[in-house]
């Protein structure tokens, strides 16, 4: 009886794993079949107005890239404060708040940026979109930096200080160098996470059918356009949405795999 | 130089605090007109963007507005009344009222369905990864599950609408866009997240405890039930609540599937709306009181998810450490 219960339980557990894998396989096959079916290289050459995706892909990259330029230094500096300077309660509170912010609904962050950036500046803009994504990114970068710096042995810091280096020298030249790979991986995963975000961009950057590098205007966004295209009645729009989803997913998964590969090699 | 560096680090850290307080204050300020107009009754009022006649006797405003909303509930049973009421507009002066009950109920129900669906499977996966599979298989399946977590939510929405929902609708009847299909796709989405953090909790069980139990002749099931679950219970509950927090605020996966109409569902297979979807689909056209009401919804969502995540983090996950 005990052995039978054990067998049933183990079988159910294996079955759960198979269900999880089946969903992954199902989604990926759908993407491959639908996405590759409508995929052609002209998509990279034309803008959305001519039935291509060029402006959207470049636009999404710029939004996520700009968000990284804003979010990574701020997140790293905050992480350094928590781990290296913070003594006592304040650093602890910031760490907890950052954890909470990491799980805050992304649409709420979109609404916040709408109220503090879009309304005062008189309209949606690439800047507003990048700020919304940066706010999403900061807590993730803080979390990574915090964790990775905590793995750097105390002795390294003490050795640096014993040689007469000032504290910031020790942090920049020794601690950060030692934790470089881990932080890079975390930042890469944070980038992969925000590049696939839609909700914070809906009413901050919106999207545009045309190629644009003007960050003060509505800015082309791949994800927002996928949402628009997928809801249109024409088959051709939906096919384009599938092709765009395929490109987006491949991009996100490749960045993720690179991140995991880097950490694996380090171990 | 030292001082500047330290100040920079400190101000970046403080930015987190400023942002969170800023989000709260901003949402509250933007929601203020709607809060003043509708008060806490907003939460239990099922009418959204509905024209109601204003009773002109100024003396009895409080009692009459209560009566009006009762009438409105009855009128809502047949939704086409909306248009007819608009036509009658010129007869008496009207005002537009907004109530949040439908999106609030929609958010809670989709999250509940997602949880009921994903909980057993996520637990099974976590057990498989932590205890059953050999190391290399566990690694590979673990990476696959984490890749599933990395797929953008909009992809889940599209896949759900065009491939998953038709099958569910065939099985259970009803509409393809409904509470049920939205909840299930949401469940698939939080599945890998819940499985991964539950596995991490289970992995904190000391090997000595497990080995002792095996030495006494316990089966794998008994070790998991009597050693691992009790040991990592608080961590597992924390993980589940954290996944719940994710599900509450999810927009895109639900937006494709919930149907996006402000009607209370009578059955699980009926379409309705959730708070994030109400914001995603109505923010663009809204202005004035309507926009303020959407901010009111955003504030409610923010407070709920803040509370849920705090409980998970501070009560369960701290204790687990």
What does this structure look like?
The complex is a heterodimer of chains A (267) and B (321). By secondary structure, chain A is mainly α. Chain A has a single domain (38-266), classed as MetI-like fold. Helix content of chain A is 75%, strand content 0%. The model of chain A has no long low-confidence stretch (mean pLDDT 92). Chain B is mostly helical and 321 residues long. Chain B folds into 2 domains: 50-97, no CATH class; 101-320, MetI-like (MetI-like fold). Chain B is 74% helix and 2% strand. The two termini of chain B are 38 Å apart. The model of chain B is unreliable at 58-90 (pLDDT under 50). Classes of the chains: A mainly alpha (267), B mainly alpha (321). At the A-B interface, helix 1, helix 2, helix 3, helix 4 and helix 5 of A face helix 1, helix 4, helix 5, helix 6 and helix 7 of B.
The helix-and-strand class of chain B reads mainly alpha
Number of strands of chain B: 2
CATH superfamily of the largest domain in chain B: MetI-like
Structural class of chain A: mainly alpha
Largest sheet geometry of chain A: none
CATH structural fold name of chain A: MetI-like fold
Largest interface: A-B, 85 and 87 residues
Q: What's the CATH topology label of the largest domain in chain B?
A: MetI-like fold
Indicate the low-confidence ranges of chain A by residue numbers: none
N- to C-terminal separation of chain A?
43 Å
């Amino acid at each position: 009886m005990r052995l039978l219960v054990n067998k049933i339980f183990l079988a159910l557990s294996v079955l759960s794993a198979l269900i999880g894998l089946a969903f992954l396989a199902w989604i990926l096959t759908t993407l491959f079949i639908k996405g590759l079916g409508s995929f052609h290289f002209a998509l990279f050459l034309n803008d959305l107005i001519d039935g291509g995706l060029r402006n959207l892909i470049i636009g999404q990259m710029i939004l996520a890239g700009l968000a990284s330029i804003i979010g990574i230094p701020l997140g790293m500096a905050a992480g350094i404060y928590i781990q290296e300077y913070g003594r006592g309660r304040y650093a602890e509170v910031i760490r907890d708040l950052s954890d909470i912010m990491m799980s805050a609904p992304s649409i709420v962050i979109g609404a916040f940026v709408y109220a503090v950036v879009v309304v005062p500046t008189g309209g949606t803009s690439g800047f507003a979109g990048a700020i919304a994504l940066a706010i999403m990114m900061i807590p993730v970068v803080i979390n990574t930096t915090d964790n990775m710096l905590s793995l750097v042995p105390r002795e390294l810091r003490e050795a640096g200080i014993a040689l007469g280096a000032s504290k910031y020298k020790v942090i920049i030249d020794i601690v950060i160098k030692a934790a470089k790979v881990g932080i890079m991986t975390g930042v890469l995963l944070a980038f992969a996470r925000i590049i696939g975000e839609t909700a914070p961009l809906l009413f901050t950057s919106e999207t545009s059918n045309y190629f644009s590098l003007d960050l003060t205007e509505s800015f082309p966004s791949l994800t927002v356009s996928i949402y628009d295209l997928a809801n249109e009645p024409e088959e051709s729009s939906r096919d384009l949405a599938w092709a765009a989803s395929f490109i987006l997913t491949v991009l996100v998964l490749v960045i993720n795999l690179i991140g995991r590969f880097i950490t694996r090699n380090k171990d | 130089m030292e001082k500047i560096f330290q100040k920079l680090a400190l101000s970046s850290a403080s930015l987190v605090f400023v942002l969170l307080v800023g989000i709260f204050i901003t949402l509250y300020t933007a929601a203020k007109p709607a809060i003043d107009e509708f008060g806490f009754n907003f939460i239990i009022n099922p009418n959204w963007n509905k024209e109601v006649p204003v009773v002109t006797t100024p003396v009895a405003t409080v009692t009459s507005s209560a009566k009006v909303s009762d009438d409105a509930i009855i009128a809502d049973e047949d939704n086409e009344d909306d248009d007819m009421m608009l036509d009658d507009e010129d007869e008496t002066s009207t005002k537009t009222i907004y109530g949040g009950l439908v999106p609030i109920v929609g958010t809670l129900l989709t999250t509940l369905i997602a949880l009921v669906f994903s909980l057993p499977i996520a637990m099974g996966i976590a057990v498989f990864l932590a205890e059953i599979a050999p190391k290399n298989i566990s690694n590979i399946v673990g990476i696959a599950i984490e890749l599933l977590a990395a797929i953008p939510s909009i992809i889940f929405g599209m896949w759900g609408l065009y491939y998953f929902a038709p099958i569910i609708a065939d099985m259970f009847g009803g509409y393809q866009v409904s509470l049920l299909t939205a909840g299930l796709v949401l469940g698939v989405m939080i599945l890998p997240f819940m499985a991964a953090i539950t596995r991490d909790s289970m992995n904190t069980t000391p090997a000595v405890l497990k080995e002792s139990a095996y030495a006494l002749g316990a089966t794998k099931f008994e070790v998991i039930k009597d050693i691992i679950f009790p040991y990592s219970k608080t961590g597992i509950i924390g993980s589940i609540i954290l996944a719940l927090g994710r599900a509450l605020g999810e927009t895109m996966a639900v937006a494709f599937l919930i149907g996006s109409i402000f009607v209370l569902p009578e059955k699980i297979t009926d379409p309705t709306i959730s708070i994030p979807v109400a914001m995603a689909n109505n923010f663009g056209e809204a202005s004035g009181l309507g926009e303020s009401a959407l901010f009111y919804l955003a504030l409610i969502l923010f407070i709920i998810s803040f509370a849920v995540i705090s409980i998970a983090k501070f009560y369960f996950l701290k204790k687990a450490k």
